[in-house]
Amino acid sequence: MTVAEELPETPETADEEPVKQRKNGLYPGVSDELAENMKSGWADTELHDLEPIAQAAETAARRAALSARFPGERLVIPAGNLKTRSNDTEYPFRASVEYAYLTGNQTEDGVLVMEPTTDGHQETIYLLPRSNRENGEFWLDGQGELWVGRRHSLTEAEKRYGIPASDVRELAGALREATGPVRVVRGYDAGIEEALTDKVTAERDEELRVFLSEMRLVKDDFEIGELQKAVDSTVRGFEDVVKVLDKAEATSERYIEGTFFLRARVEGNDVGYGSICAAGPHACTLHWVRNDGPVRSGDLLLLDAGVETHTYYTADVTRTLPVDGRYTELQKKIYDAVYDAQEAGIAAVKPGAKYRDFHDAAQRVLAERLVEWGLVEGPVERVLELGLQRRWTLHGTGHMLGMDVHDCAAARTETYVDGTLEPGMVLTVEPGLYFQADDLTVPEEYRGIGVRIEDDILVTEDGNTNLSSALPRRSDEVEAWMAGLKG
Where do the record's region annotations for Disordered lie (predicted)? Predict the structure, then answer.
């Protein structure tokens, strides 16, 4: 991998920050002849037949709702900047959810600005334009197009996103001169925040962030379609894993992680979160993402993974699979208890129900089984009142799902956890039982067994739909499914 050299000092670049030069680059500079040569001889590549993005109508409606909520105020929503991974390499960029939700754009350094008008807001999307060919930026800058690829011109961006586009490099200066009330989504673009530092307050900015989070509680038809795409790809990713469990046994959990990642990258944008490929006692570590342990016949594999679509919507599905294709008697007993708890939880998902209802329903079933097995002293009401089941259940039974795997996280408690389910909400139902390898309060044979079953549930007008129902859940169905794939 090579890195671009410093731009020559020209009238076009004299007032700009010079391009960062690698200390040990092989070329000390650029001759006048080469600089002149690189200015010309390039075809016109402007794209003239672009169509609006698929969700253009939806993003416009979202901006209209945002405008109505904050009349007379300037609203600034940044995409964010590249983040350094090490030295001169960056992490793959993912735009902020707030920005992508309102625009559909996913490029670094982008900013949506909504300027107040007498009847709403004037919207502008600020982006980096095409790399400058006259001053050599396109081939000398490390982020120039010959290094990282072509980006859309501002005219092309306007066609795709349905928003007037301007050069983002002019925005910070304009914001410094801005007057009137301003709100910004914090945490993504330090330069934009610095330009607004004397114009915003943390309290007002938090109100903007909370509103944008609560907007996403109910999904529109486009979002539901994208979530179904994500789930369908995830189902195929789980099938891929089952087919190569023998190779995972010969290597490690990393083989499972890599297998699922291939499906995510081929059919989507990425994985929606770090895949949990937890075999044996690692299944008892809720967020086991090291994925460097052995995969052994006779153990269980807890696979918690989700494909993220190109529009950032992610699935979140978990299955706990017998590595050799058959549950032992004890594994099946524990698995079936979790399955029954999930069944109770899913049945409680319906419009008008309290958000907490599905959690309470699943926890009751798990508490009943723990009492029945003699692992905790009853009665069940006492166990639930004191939360004693939590030693082995540990986590909540689900969460909202969307562009974030834990979507709508900034929403107010009264509208989320203490809220009421409505059609269009999508959430996970994922009870689990986890018997830690060092838990001396349970019989030895339980220790090291962890089971979770998770599905993505859409609240409908008359109940719910399991978006991930294509993956078997019942223990006998899981065994038959695995046998068919391995067969």
Answer: 1-29
Q: Are 346 and 466 in contact (CB under 8 A)?
A: yes
112, β-bridge pairs: 77, 125
3-state helix, strand, coil in the chain (%, to 5): 35, 15, 45
Q: Which amino acid is at 169?
A: R
pLDDT digits (tens, 9 = 90+) for 13-36: 434 555 556 788 888 889 999 999
> How many residues does the structure list for the chain?
487
Long-range contacts of the stretch 384-392 (C-beta < 8 A, 24+): 389/363, 391/439, 391/441, 392/366, 392/433, 392/434, 392/435, 392/442
Which of the 8 DSSP states describes residue 444?
G
The C-alpha torsion from 347 through 348 and 353 to 354, rounded to 10°, is -160
Angstrom distance (rounded) from CA 142 to CA 371? 62
pLDDT in tens, 281-334: 999 999 999 999 999 999 999 999 999 999 999 999 999 999 999 999 999 999
Amino acid in position 143:
Q
Distances (CA, A) of 447 to 249, 363, 438: 21, 21, 7
Calpha distance 356→371 (Å, rounded): 22
Burial of 95 by CB count in 10 Å (0-12 exposed, 13-18 middle, 19+ buried)?
Answer: buried
Report if pTM > 0.90: yes
Please give the Cα distance from 146 to 143 (Å, whole number).
Answer: 8
Is the per-residue pLDDT at 4 higher than 90?
A: no
Give CA separation, 480 vs 327, 340, 487, in Å: 11, 19, 10
